[in-house]
Amino acid sequence: MFLEVSSRRDIADDVIELSFRDRDGGPLVDWEPGAHIDLTVSPGVVRQYSLCGRPSDRQHYRIAVLREASGRGGSRAVHDIVQVGSVFEVAGPRNNFALEPVPGYLFIAGGIGITPIIPMIDTAISSGADWQLVYGGRHRTSMAYTEELEQLGPNVSIRPQDVDGLLDIEGALSRCAPDTLIYCCGPEPLLRAVEDHCERRQLLSSLRLERFQARQPTDDVIDAEFEIELGCSGRVLTVPADRSVLDVLRDCGIDVISSCEEGVCGSCEIPVRSGIPEHRDSILTDEERAAGDRMMVCVSRSRSARLCLDVKPADAT
Ligand code: FES
Q1: How far from the centroid of its chain's Cα atoms is residue 231's Cα?
Q2: What is the pLDDT of residue 317?
Q3: Hey, which of 262, 282, 284 would you mutate to test ligand 1's pocket, going by the most ligand atoms within 8 Å of its Cβ?
Q4: Which of the listed residues 45, 244, 261, 284 should we mutate to test ligand 1's pocket, taking the one with most ligand atoms within 8 A of CB?
Q5: Structure confidence at residue 4 (pLDDT)
Q6: How far away, in angstroms, is 122 Cα from ligand 1 center?
Q7: What is the pLDDT of residue 215?
Q8: Cα 180 to ligand 1 centre (Å)
Q9: Which residues in the chain land under pLDDT 70?
Q10: How many angstroms separate the most distant Cα atoms in the chain?
Q11: 20 to 30 Å CA-CA from 104: which of 44, 69, 120, 196?
């Protein structure tokens, strides 16, 4: 779909907030907290941004964009080119970070990672759940939405690093009730630190993370050739060591949707009928990986000699 920018405003150092609307004023596709949209910034440049408005507002999608000086250029382009009235191709919303209904939540956000957390807090409040927010950033002026969040009262802990140091993750986890889910979004060092603390406390099954950059592999990985079988057709293709499953499917005319092509957006997910995927995405939980019934074909490969994927050959009817 093509959406028009209806507002743009500065909300923190190097952070702008954008609202999008349908060009004809029609209602937008509904969404749940944790969802993101895929914004085509320029031909071939697609970036994911969490929705941070209210799901009840069917007229607008709201996002906040940090200008990342050392990024790949997508956010700089957004800052430089977007004006009220600009029109962009938008896909989604898609949700890899859904808020599960539980009695309590600990939200941990770093920097621009606050964006998916904002509608989650609204939902937690309206459902009567217990919740706490621990929100860090380099400086207070670099942190978006601090004033709105402070109005929510003592459940909100805003901790700029230049004043308070690193977030007290251990302290926050120690105050969690047993049935609390932990939702965390932010830069990779924060995600890694929260994962480490949760692992030590045996809380990994309660942790929900969202990454917008690919997780760095912890081990050296060697790519090997394997085969993929296309659904019930019996047709078998070889995935060479230097190509992805996505490349091979496209070569044979199968139209697979993709966006990030680095395992963070979820758009290229395909069901797996048999075989053992080697997951290299940054989305699936440990349980979902162990189930082995789906994979992100842009980055994931195979531990078995052959994977049977639930796709149809391009010439199948
Ligand atoms: Fe984004 Fe594969 S294209 S996960």
Answers
A1: 28
A2: 47
A3: 262
A4: 261
A5: 97
A6: 29
A7: 72
A8: 30
A9: 216-220, 315-317
A10: 63
A11: 196
**281 CB-side CA count, 13 A:** 30
Neighbouring CB atoms inside 10 A of 119's CB total 23
Nearest to 84, CA basis, from 15, 1, 17, 14: 17
pTM: 0.84
Q: What is the pLDDT of residue 109?
A: 98
Q: How far apart are CA 295 and CA 268, in angstroms?
A: 8
Distance 23 CA to ligand 1 centre (A): 28
Residue 219 has what pLDDT?
62
* Res 220: pLDDT: 67
DSSP, res 217: P
Question: 262 CA to middle of ligand 1, Å?
Answer: 6
C-alpha 263/C-alpha 212 separation (Å) is 9
- Which string of b and e fits 156-188 if b means at least 16 CB within 10 Å? bbbbbbeeeeebebeebbeebeeebbbbbbbbe
Number of H helices, E strands in the chain: 8, 18
User: What is the CB neighbour count within 10 angstroms for residue 306?
Assistant: 15
pLDDT in tens, 97-153: 999 999 999 999 999 999 999 999 999 999 999 999 999 999 999 999 999 999 999
d(CA 198, CA 280): 21
Question: Chain centroid to CA 176: how far?
Answer: 24
Q: Work out which ligand 1 atom sits closest to the CA atom of 297.
A: 2
CA distance 113 to 134: 11
